[in-house]
Amino acid sequence: MQEDFLHFIWKYKRFQSKALKTVEGSFINIISLGQHNHNAGPDFFNSQLEIDGQKWAGNVEIHIKSSDWYVHNHEKDEAYDNVILHVVWEHDTEIFRKDNTEIPTLEISNYVDKTLFNNYKSLLNSKTWINCESDIGSIDDFKFNSWLERLYIERLERKSTEIEQLLQESKNDWEAVLFKMLLKNFGLKVNGEPFKSLANSVDYSIVRKVKTNQTDIEALLFGQANLLEDEVEDMYVQDLQKRYSFLKQKFGLENRGVMPLQFFRLRPPNFPTIRLSQLAVLYATYSNLFSEVIQLQAKENFYELFQIETSEFWETHYTFSKTSKKVKKKLSKPFIDLLLINTILPVKFSYLKFKGKMDDQSIFQLIKSIKIENNGIVNKFLELRPMEKSAMTSQGLIQLKTEYCDKNKCLQCAVGNQLIAKK
Question: Which InterPro entries does the protein's record reference (predicted)?
C-alpha cells in the first residue's frame, strides 16, 4: 500500500461517497474534494465538507495509518492546523491538532470496492517489462492516443526547461539558443555532449561575426574542437589552421573545456568532422536561420531548408589525414527528422510559449508527419498494441516508459487509471 493510492482514491472519488461516517460516527457530506497539493503541506487544499450538518472549509490530509500523523510530526506544524479531515486506510489512534482539538478521521478502506484495491495490487506487483504489459492492448484507441498527445506535450515541456535556461544565459538571443541546440543534436547520441561543450566554449556573438564566411566558421568549429592540432600537408587544412590562429588571438578563445570527440564505432557519414562541416555550411547559407525555422510549418519545407552538403574538401575525406572516394555528403531525411524531433520542435514550442502564442495543433501537425522512431522502447510497445506510426507516438511512448512505467507511476497514468478502475 502506498499513500499515492489513497490520493488517487480521494482525488477521483473512487469510493462509496454516500452515508460516509467518521470513525467517531459523524456523517460526512463532500461538497468539494479540494485541490491536490504536490508540494509541502496537507495533501488537498480548499476542501469543503459537511460534518453532521456543520459546513467546514479547509484541508484534507491522507495517511496509511492514523498514527502516521505523529510519525510525520504534523501535530507540531502550524501548516496542518487547518486540516478538517484525516483520511486513512487504517485507523489506529485518535489525532489532535497543535491546540489539542481532535481532527475527524475517515477510515476510507470501509468504502473502497475490494476489486479496485486488488487491481491496484495486481498492477503494481507485476514483474513484466511494464506493469500493464498484458492489458495495455485493451485500452481503447481514443483514450490511448489522447494520453500519448499529453505525454508528448509533457516531453516538450521537459525539453523547454533546458531551452529556457539557454535563453536566460544568452539574454533572450533565440539565434544563440538555436545554435547551441542544433550543435548538440548534430552530434547525435555519441557526440551530443562533446558538441554541447563545443557550443559552450564560444559565445554566439563570435559565431555571428564569422559565419558570413564559410571557411572562417569551419575554422572556428574545428579549432575549438581541437581538430586542427596535427600537421597536415594540405592547403585547405593549413588555411583552416591559420584562420583559427587569427580568430583565437582576436577573440581570446579558450577550448580547454571541450570534451574529446568520438569517431570509434561511428559510421563515417556521422563522423564529427562531417557533421561540423555541414553545420558550418548551414550557418554560412542562412543569415537568419532562427527566423527561417520559426516561419516554416511543413516537413517538406524543412527538408528543403536542410538540403546542405559539406564543403568541397570533405567530399573526398572523412578525416583530415586520409582521402576517400569522392561523394557528396548531404544531410539525410532520417537525420533531418531527428533534428526536427529533438531541436526544431522543442525550440518552436518554447518560442511560441515565450511569446504567449501557443499553437498545439501546428506542433502536432508537424510531429505527426514525421516517421515513427526505431528504438528498443518503441519497438517493444508496438509488439503490445497497434499504434499510429508517427514520431508523436514514439516520443509519447518514450515519455511513458521513462517517466511513468519505470517509476511505477501507474496511478498518475491514464492507462493505469483505467486498468485499476475496471470492474
Answer: DUF2851
Q: pLDDT tens for residues 129-149?
A: 999 999 999 999 999 999 999
Residue 64 structural domain: 3-112
What is the CA 388 to chain-centroid distance, rounded? 21
Same domain flag for 251 and 385: no
Q: Are residues 69 and 158 in the same domain?
A: no
β strands within 178-261, DSSP E = none
Q: 44-51 and 27-32: which strand pairing?
A: antiparallel
SS (H, E, C) 209-239: HHCCCHHHHHHHHHHHCCCCCCCCCCHHHHH
Q: Are strands 44-51 and 35-36 parallel, antiparallel or unpaired?
A: antiparallel
Q: Ramachandran region of residue 328, left (φ > 0), alpha (ψ -120 to 50) or beta? A: beta
Length of the chain as a residue count: 423
Verify that 206 and 326 share a domain, yes or no: yes
Asked whether 258 and 252 are in contact (CB, 8 A), the reply is no
pLDDT band of residue 59 (cuts 50, 70, 90) is very high
Number of H helices, E strands in the chain: 18, 7
Q: Is 3 left (phi over 0), alpha (psi -120 to 50) or beta?
A: alpha
Domain co-membership, 157 together with 177: no
Q: Report the alpha-carbon distance of residue 364 to residue 297 in Å, rounded.
A: 11
Residue 25: what residue type? G
- Do both 32 and 103 map to the same domain? yes
Are the C-beta atoms of 56 and 50 separated by less than 8 Å?
yes
Is residue 177 in a domain?
Answer: yes
Q: Are 32 and 46 in contact (CB under 8 A)?
A: yes
Whether 327 is covered by a domain: the verdict is yes
**Distance from the Cα of residue 385 to its chain's centroid:** 23
CA distance 404 to 411: 9
Q: What's the total number of domains in the chain?
A: 3
Q: E strand or H helix at 29, and its extent?
A: strand 27-32
Is 38 a member of any domain?
yes
8 is written with which cell numbers?
488517487
Task: Give the DSSP H/E element, type plus range, for residue 285.
Answer: helix 272-285
Tens digits of residue pLDDT in 305-362: 999 999 999 999 999 999 999 999 999 999 999 999 999 999 999 999 999 988 788 9
Q: Is the dihedral of CA 320, 323, 327, 332 positive or negative?
A: negative
